[in-house]
Amino acid sequence: MRTDPRPIAETSRHHRLKGSLAHGTHRGQTCEQWQLEVTSGGRVWYLLDTARETCWITFAGTGHSRATDRR
Asked: Among 19, 22, 36, 44, which residue is least crowded by beta carbons within 10 Å?
C-alpha cells in the first residue's frame, strides 16, 4: 500500500473496490477506494488521494467487512 497504492496488476489480495464502494470522499475530494487483504480475514480499505499523494485509511479490521456482502 505504501510503495504501490495503485498496482498495475490487481490481485485478489490488493484491488480496487467495486460499485458504490469504488469511491469515497475525504476533505471534499473524491478518491478511488482500494482494499488490501493483510491476512485471510484482515483487511485495510483506503482512499487514494492522488492530489496529496496520500492514502487515507477508511477501514482496518480483522474480519471481512459486511459492506461488501451481496444481498
From this structure: 19
